[in-house]
Known about the structure:
By secondary structure, this protein is of the alpha/beta class. About 35% of the residues lie in helices and about 25% in strands. The protein contains 13 helices and 21 strands. It starts with a strand and ends with a helix. The mean pLDDT is about 95. Bound molecules: cytidine-5'-triphosphate. The site of cytidine-5'-triphosphate has 14 residues, from α11 and β16.
Amino acid sequence: MQKNILIGVTGGIAAYKVVEVASRLKKSGANVKIIMTKHATEFVSPRTFQEITNNAVSVEMFGDAANFIHVEHISLADWADFMLIAPATANFLAKTAHGIADDLLTTTILAFDKKILVCPSMNTKMFENPATQANLSTLKARGIKILEPASGNLACGTSGKGRLPEPTEICAEIEKILSEEKILSGKKILVTAGGTVEAIDPVRYIGNRSSGRMGFEIAKVAVNFGAEVVLISGKSELEPPKNLEFIKVEAATEMREAILKHFDSVDSVIMSAAVADYRIKTPSAQKIKKSDENLTLELVKNPDILKELGGLKKNQILIGFAAETQNILEYANKKLVEKNLNFIVANDVTAEGAGFGVSTNIASIIWRNGRVESFEKMSKAALAEKIIERVANLLNR
Ligand code: CTP
C-alpha cells in the first residue's frame, strides 16, 4: 500500500493497540505520520510512535512551523491520502461533529477532504449515550467511515460494546476502503518492463541494466486501480505481479510482435521497457569459440517500437520513458514529439537515488504543451501511482 496515512490518536487506553496498527501499515509500504492529542500522550509516548513510523509525531498546534511549507494542520492534511482516527474518544467525536477545531487533530481533520476512518473506543454507556450516537450519525452522513467497536471486557472494569477492534481488523478495513479507488475499471492497459536480450550466440547476449522494477510497479498500480493489465517483460529477476496477463519476451523484435498483437485492444500503452536500439546482425547458431585477439560483432538497428505505435495510434494514450545521462529535458522532449506520446517520464539515470536497480526514482513528467512536473525523490511505487493517476485522468476525460 503506497499511501500517505495520517493517524490521529486520541486519549483512550486502546492507544497502545494503534502502535501495532502503525507498524503494520508501515510494513505494508505506507508512509505513516501521527498526530496525538495531549491526552493521548498520557497513554503512549510520542517517542514510541516516532520510532515505529520513522517520522516526527505532532502534538502541538503551534509546534515547529519552520519545517512546513504551510502551517502544520494544512500541510499534514495536504500530505495525507487517508486519515485514520483510533482510538476516537467521545470527546473527539463530539468536537468533530460540530466542527470544533481547538487542537492540532481536530483542526487538521477540518482541513482534510479525503477518506477518513474513525474507530470509536470507550465505555459502553458513553458509546450508547444518545449524544455520542447522534455525533456518529452526523459523521457518517458526511461520508466519514465508522468502524464499530467490538464487544468484550473494557478497561473500566465493565464488559460490553466499546473495545477498539484488533489491529488486523483495522488494517483490513483501511485496505478495503483504499481499494475502492477503481478509477481504471473497464480500461485495458499494456505495460512493458525490463530490458531486452539480444542474442550473440546460444550462451551470450547484449543486455542492459534495467531491473524491470518501474514497469512492474506501474502494472501493479494499474491492477489495483481496476484495469485489465497486460505486462510484457524483457529480462527481470522480479516476481511477476498477480492478477494480470504476464508475457515474457527476450529480443526487441519479439517484444514488438507481442505488443502489436495487443495494441488494437488496449486503451493505453506505458512503455517503460529498456529496448535495445541494436541487435546482432547474425547471431551464431553455435557458441563462438575464442580465436583472434579482436572480435567484431556487427549490429543492426532494432525497430523503434514506441515510434511505430505513435504512428499507428487511434485513441490510445501513449506514455514513454526517457532515461538520460545529460540534457534530460531537451532529449526527452524530442522523444515526446517524435514518438507522438501524450507525456514522457524523464529521468537522469546517473543521479543518486534514480535509474537502474534502485527502488527510488527522481523523475519529471513532460507534457505536449511544454508543462513540466518535477517530482522529488520517491519510491518507484509512488511514481507509478503518479503516472497511473495521470493516465486515468486522460482516459476518463
Ligand atoms: N523505445 C522503443 N523502441 C526502441 C527504443 C526505445 O519502444 N527501439 C521506447 C522506450 O521503451 C522508451 C522510449 O522509447 O519508452 C525512449 O527510449 P530511449 O532508449 O530513452 O530512447 P531512444 O529513442 O532509444 O533514443 P536514444 O537511445 O538515442 O536516447
